[in-house]
Amino acid sequence: MKIAEARPAATVVLLRDGAQGLEVFMVRRHHQIDFAGGALVFPGGKLAPEDVELGQTLALDDALAPFRVAAIRELFEESGLLLAGGAMGGGHGLNAAPLDRLRTELVQEGVGFTLLLERLELRPDLGALLPFAHWITPEMVPKRFDTHFFLARMTGDTVLRHDGGETVDSLWINPSDAIAAAQAGQHTIIWPTLMNLKKLARNHSVAEAWRTTQEGTVVTVLPCLVDMPQGKRMRIPQEAGYDAWDVDLATVLGTPTLPK
Questions:
Q1: Pick the CATH number of 6-216 from 3.30.70.240, 3.40.50.10490, 3.90.79.10, 3.40.309.10
Q2: pLDDT tens digit string along 209-244?
Q3: What pTM does this model have?
């Protein structure tokens, strides 16, 4: 069997402190999208050549810089929040009208992200992103991604809105509530997202999640399929720090329950 190449991708786990504790921003993908259609996900997507070029220009010694740029671009496209700073005061503080226009140019009109940033004399705030997880799609899957997950803190007063194209809904939600909703069949959430939500749910605040992540180590997760007496299982490295490292295949394929 030929193993498909895993395409580089980046995802942003945007956090804020809500009335009931830690909350994460999630978007619902359009049901017609071939990967995770209709699922509740963190904002993110594939790296573009422009992301690689800009990332290497900004931080040649940071191997994750292209992923950081892609994460910032995707977050802007899918939420309207621009993690950038510069001579004009920074993307966090720009009012909604210019940001909405820039977002339209980027998403609908195909104007390059680098050009938009140059027009406003802004630079992507690569330091606003904290590496959280690294997942690679299993080798038996025909469409594969090599995805870096980053934590980011919600800043400023930007009202976040899904783009209405690739994403058709958005919400702030407590990680534990998202897991419970998936278990109840109220939301479709793919297995890697559920695993990362469960990891987030250990924390009660943004500060705690940030500190815990800084103190830990990101271990690459490449799930592998193993045959066990009880059936096929999907296994991930124990040292990656997830509560479950050996999961039945039905859970991975979409059963709305998580291992206890």
A1: 3.90.79.10
A2: 999 999 999 999 999 888 877 778 888 999 999 987
A3: 0.86
